[in-house]
Design brief:
Elements lengths: L8 H26 L44 H5 L3 H9 L5 H19 L2 E4 L1 H16 L11 E5 L26 H8 L3 E6 L9 E2 L2 E2 L1 E2 L2 E5 L5 H8 L6 E5 L5 H7 L2 E4 L19 E6 L2 H11 L26 E4 L5 H9 L3 E4 L9 H16 L1 H5 L12 H8 L4 H21 L4 E4 L4 H10 L3 E10 L11 E10 L4 H12 L35
């Protein structure tokens, strides 16, 4: 198990005696100090990952972004049309008093409760809090105080993010009744901007895949499929127009996979951009929070609100980004991989971007293994008590965390450190090979997901079209398989990816399409059990 068969029998006996006398008491003492509670909400590691490639400051960095001014926005006649408006459009309706925040809360809570029985994307409705926050937002506006584009806008949080007074279940039956009396940093940021929390959305159990203690979250574009990835609730709820935006998290694909499956625009920002205080921790050197939205423009607005230095998150940093709305994309050189969606390449080229074929070159051949070691060992440190008390026997999917974390128990500390040394080598090679300002490529290629999370660079997932589902009903169906791509940038250059995505979406409409959850087609009902189970990516 330890790859240490170079020890002869006498040395093994000596090691056993020394370990019993020296190691075991230290193990017990450390566990008592910092590991009696699960989830990593307290006692973070002093080992800090920093993804920065350079000490240079971004040109023209601004404290806050300058949002485009919308004029002539009129309130739609139907609640359905209101539900699929952008954040800036909804914000203009509120600012001009064509609609109130309370009215928006009513619309979105109704949609959450209408579609959740099918999609299984909501864990907790926060009605009382939502109406309280909405009323406060309306009262502020009546006094002439407007907090910005998120003023009075409803949203959802992945249920690994703590909100005082409400359960934070982590999607797990073992923790489904826990309440923490702290405020997550990202929740405080959104609250200070006037945003209104309407629901705690599904996290896969302990932030792994889309299975949780209440079921399994479905894809609004094809309800025979599941949403895949642990930010299942934020992706499905945003796609279905149940919330204007939501906050999810990624350690290894939990933003990119569900965003791609559910056909929404989502940003996995540079590591350290968004503070994680009050958020269940998988891996402190990998975890990131990011927005699920209707568009790249909306992602930019939300990122501007939630970015910044969290004083209680040692990995959090203030990253002085350029204003994505002011980036001159004609000055950029953007690469495209072999698996890039060529429509995106051609649109950006037509807008004056220099597009070139591109490939990331690196010699490290154990990228997926490095990710696996890093994530599993750090996760087990946060759920040591959970495993030791055999709560893993009650976990919702035994081939997921229970299997991985039992294996992680016997990863030697020296080999965890060797994995981090290999990770550093990988980062250096990727930095040398990243010769463009950004590149376009598949957002769910597993090797690239692992690499991007280990290096810490940002990617925005962008819908680029649809195709027919496999084996559609003979009577017809409106269900579709979504097509997406990823726009990747260097660490601390999220504004480049956002600007390119906004440029693409300014002349395309894929991101504005609505899933067929009200009109699936003749005899096109929700199957149970499902007939299509997508391949589940294990962290290999």
């Amino acid at each position: 198990m330890l790859d240490a068969n170079f020890f002869d029998d006498s040395k093994v006996l000596d090691i056993a005696r020394e370990a019993k006398e020296f190691n075991l008491p230290i193990f017990a003492a450390n566990r008592e100090l910092v590991a009696s509670e699960n989830g990593g909400l307290h006692n973070p590691s002093c080992l800090i990952f920093n993804p920065e490639w350079t000490d240079e400051q971004v040109e023209n960095a601004s404290n806050r972004f300058s949002y485009p001014t919308l004029s002539g926005i009129q309130k739609p006649k139907t609640e359905e049309d209101i539900a699929f408006m952008s954040i800036l459009e909804l914000g203009e309706l509120i600012r001009t008093k064509q609609i109130t925040s309370v009215e928006l809360v009513q619309i979105f809570l109704q949609r959450l409760k209408r579609y959740n029985p099918v999609l299984e994307s909501v864990i907790t409705y926060t009605d009382e809090l939502a109406y309280k926050q909405a009323k406060e937002a309306d009262e502020l506006l009546a006094k002439g105080v407007y907090l910005g584009p998120l003023h009075g806008i409803p949203y959802g949080l992945k249920d690994i993010i703590v909100v005082p007074g409400y359960k934070t279940t982590w999607g797990s039956g073992s923790f489904k009744d826990q309440v923490h009396n702290i405020e997550a940093w990202v929740y405080k940021r959104l609250k200070s901007a006037g945003a209104v929390l309407v629901a705690k959305l599904v996290s896969g159990s302990l932030a792994y895949d889309d299975i949780w203690f209440g079921g399994r979250t479905r894809n609004p574009w094809n309800i025979e499929e599941f949403s895949t990835g642990s930010s299942a609730g934020p992706a499905a709820s945003t796609s279905a127009g149940m919330v204007p935006f939501a906050i999810g998290s990624e350690t290894a694909g939990s933003i990119t996979y569900p965003a791609a499956r559910c056909g929404v625009t989502a940003l996995r920002p540079t590591f350290g951009t968004v503070g994680r205080t009050g958020v269940m921790s998988i891996a402190e050197s990998l975890d990131k929070l990011g927005p699920f939205c209707r568009s790249a423009e909306d992602c930019t607005v939300v990122l501007d609100t939630i970015r910044g230095k969290d004083p209680d998150d040692l990995s959090s940093r203030y990253i002085p980004l350029d204003d994505p709305f002011s980036v001159d994309i004609k000055r950029l050189t953007v690469g495209y991989m072999d698996d890039a969606e060529m429509e995106v390449v051609n649109v950006l080229k037509s807008k004056g971007v220099k597009m070139v074929p591109f490939k990331l070159n690196y010699t490290v051949d154990s990228v997926q293994g490095i990710l696996n070691f890093t994530m599993d060992v750090e996760m087990l440190a946060h759920f040591d008590e959970w495993q030791r008390t055999r709560q893993d026997d009650l976990y919702e999917a035994q081939d997921q965390w229970p299997t991985e974390l039992r294996r992680a128990r016997v990863i030697p500390a020296v080999d965890y450190v060797q994995a981090q040394r290999a990770r550093r080598k990988l980062i250096q090679e990727v930095k040398k090979s990243f010769t463009v300002d950004a590149f376009i490529g598949n957002a769910t290629d597993w090797e690239r997901v692992c690499l991007g999370n280990l290096v810490g660079f940002p990617v925005i997932v962008v819908p680029t079209g649809f195709k027919n589902i496999s084996s559609p009903p003979s009577e017809g169906t409106r269900r579709r398989t979504t097509i997406t791509t990823g726009i990747y940038a260097r660490p601390n250059h999220d504004h480049i990816a956002l600007a390119l995505a906004m440029a693409y979406q300014s002349v395309t409409y894929h991101h504005k399409q609505r899933p067929p959850i009200d009109n699936l087609g003749p005899n096109d009902i929700r199957p149970y059990p499902p007939t299509t189970i997508p391949h589940r990516r294990l962290h290999l």
